[in-house]
Amino acid sequence: MNDDLLTVTDLTAGYGHTKVLRGISLRVGAAEAIGLLGPNGHGKTTLLRCVSNLHRATSGSVAYAGSDTRGRSPRDLVRRGLIHVPQGSRLFPQLTVAEALRLSAASSGHLATWRDGLDHVFTVFPRLKERRGQLTGTLSGGERQMVSLGMGLMARPTLLILDEPTLGLSPKVKHELSECILRIRAEVSSIILVDGDMELVLSLTDRYHVVLHGDIVHSGASDATVGRDAMMSLFLGGSADERR
What we know:
The protein is an alpha/beta fold. It has two domains: 4-81 and 161-236, Rossmann fold (3-Layer(aba) Sandwich); 95-156. Helices cover 35% and strands 26% of the residues. The strands form two sheets. It has a six-stranded mixed sheet, with helices on both faces. The protein has a four-stranded antiparallel sheet with strand order 2-1-4-5, covered by helices on one side. A hairpin with a 2-residue loop joins strand 1 (4-15) and strand 2 (18-29). The two termini are 35 Å apart.
């Protein structure tokens, strides 16, 4: 029996004549968190966008919950529990925290139970409860990122994709956010995490893949010590001028 929630097979993709992904294959099991590591510009974000159908792959396939995702809209995948929180907080600055969270519940088909979802988000992110009536445009960077993650939770994810959730945050706020992600891990079935902080990714995931030049060049268990030096070398290596 196949317990994989997500299966990516020989995926290629690019932008115009620029090839970014070069035949990537990976799987995410039910109740599993995986991390994607590697230098900027080597295809991690493009891979995530292809998984959530925000970018069309050139070839290969993506199967989610046992079904091929080709031909499905990103909105359909959201309603089936595949939730992508992209890099950078993309919020409507004129909405309050509570209104932004309610909007996410409505757009993902969970408006009827949005108050329950709100209570849950406030449990994971206590600071948002204090800010519930504040406009998102007036929040700090860390608080805006918490709202983005909270909106992901309001959509009731089965697979939660997080792209650079701690980018640009101070060490103190990064630690606070990582504790929140750890709480999310206990409740969400599966997670794909991309972040520039290698140690953070390894502390929050079960397995990792290093992506270099659009392909997976190294994989391992996140808690393994064997091969850590080689992985570090790959993580820091490579040029940063390729398209993501």
